């Protein structure tokens, strides 16, 4: 495949893929600081309802940010060939939950992921959903999440083309700030042939919407 070109960012920087090593005391440090937030709010962190909250929140953060400690590309490395299948593979409506890195509030949405295999090299369909999840479970920007998914497929499967479309609802726009519930943010990244060939890209987009 030729040098990929992104729809969204023509100079998409190489995204760092290394998984972090989780600090051994991560849960304790988070819990300590959540307790401090409760105190700063004027709450009594010792009252019954709040007593276990710092530990609960710490465990929750480690769960929703578990993608920081894995390399999601690994999922795509399990591959097989498929008797000369020459058409596109599209997995649409992959539900994802992420966290906006500006406010640490949830982002809910769906991802539509498509690629055009080269020489029949395929990965399992569930691996595409695992890829989305691995990158979603981090403090994220929707644009970065979109690019990371597309670039991982391009790098590991070497397909002829990739198209990723994400639709997300950001709680930081619904619950606070501008308070615009229901608004959706749509981002896309097209690589390889679908970055150049608008007609083919349009066909894949309509299959994603069908
Ligand atoms: N481009 C982009 N922006 C995001 C994403 N998630 C949250 N934001 C935006 O990040 C921006 C942060 O803006 P700031 O002005 O620094 O923060 P703020 O005062 O809390 O902004 P408001 O949300 O407008 O109240 C907001 O406009 C959010 O809507 C994302 O995934 N991509
Ligand atoms: Zn936000």
Main attributes?
single chain, 210 residues, alpha+beta, GTP Cyclohydrolase I, Chain A, domain 1, GTP Cyclohydrolase I, domain 2, 2 domains, five-stranded mixed β-sheet, two-stranded antiparallel ribbon, 8 helices, 7 strands, elongated, disordered N terminus, binds guanosine-5'-triphosphate, binds zinc ion
Q: Layout of helices and strands, plus pairs?
A:
Blueprint: H1 26-40, H2 48-51, H3 53-64, E1 79-81, E2 89-100, E3 106-116, E4 121-123, H4 125-136, E5 139-140, H5 142-157, E6 161-170, H6 171-174, E7 185-192, H7 193-196, H8 198-209
Parallel strand pairs: 2-5
Antiparallel strand pairs: 1-4, 2-3, 3-6, 6-7
Bound molecules: guanosine-5'-triphosphate and zinc ion (ZN).
What does this protein look like?
With 210 residues, the protein is an alpha+beta fold. It has two domains: 26-64, Orthogonal Bundle (GTP Cyclohydrolase I, Chain A, domain 1), CATH 1.10.286.10; 71-209, GTP cyclohydrolase I, C-terminal domain/NADPH-dependent 7-cyano-7-deazaguanine reductase, N-terminal domain (GTP Cyclohydrolase I, domain 2, 2-Layer Sandwich). It is 38% helix and 23% strand. The chain is built from eight helices and seven strands. It has a five-stranded mixed sheet. A two-stranded antiparallel sheet has the order 1-4. Helix 4 (125-136) packs across helix 5. The chain is elongated and about 65 Å long. It starts with 25 loop residues before the first helix and ends with a helix. Guanosine-5'-triphosphate (GTP) binds at residues 100, 102, 141-143, 170, 172-173, 177-178. It is an enzyme of class 3 (hydrolase). It catalyses: GTP + H2O = 7,8-dihydroneopterin 3'-triphosphate + formate + H(+). Its EC number is 3.5.4.16. One of its GO terms (biological process) is tetrahydrobiopterin biosynthetic process.
């Amino acid at each position: 495949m030729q040098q990929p070109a992104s729809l969204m960012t023509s100079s998409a920087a190489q995204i760092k893929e290394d998984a972090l090593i989780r600090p051994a005391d991560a849960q304790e440090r988070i819990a300590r600081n959540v307790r401090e937030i409760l105190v700063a709010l004027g709450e009594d962190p010792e009252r019954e309802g709040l007593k276990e909250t710092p530990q609960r929140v710490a465990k929750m953060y480690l769960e929703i940010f578990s993608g920081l400690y894995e390399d999601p590309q690994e999922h795509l490395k399990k591959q097989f060939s498929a008797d000369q299948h020459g058409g596109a593979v599209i997995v649409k409506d992959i539900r994802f939950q992420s966290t906006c890195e500006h406010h640490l509030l949830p982002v809910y949405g769906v991802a539509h992921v498509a690629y055009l295999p080269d020489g029949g090299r395929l990965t399992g369909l569930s691996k595409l959903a695992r890829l989305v999840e691995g990158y979603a479970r981090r403090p994220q920007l929707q644009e970065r999440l979109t690019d990371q998914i597309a670039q991982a497929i391009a790098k590991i499967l070497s397909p002829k083309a990739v198209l990723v479309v994400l639709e997300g609802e950001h709680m930081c726009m619904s619950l606070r700030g501008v308070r615009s519930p229901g608004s959706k943010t749509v981002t896309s990244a097209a690589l390889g042939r679908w970055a150049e060939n608008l007609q083919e890209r349009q066909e894949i987009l309509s299959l994603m919407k069908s």
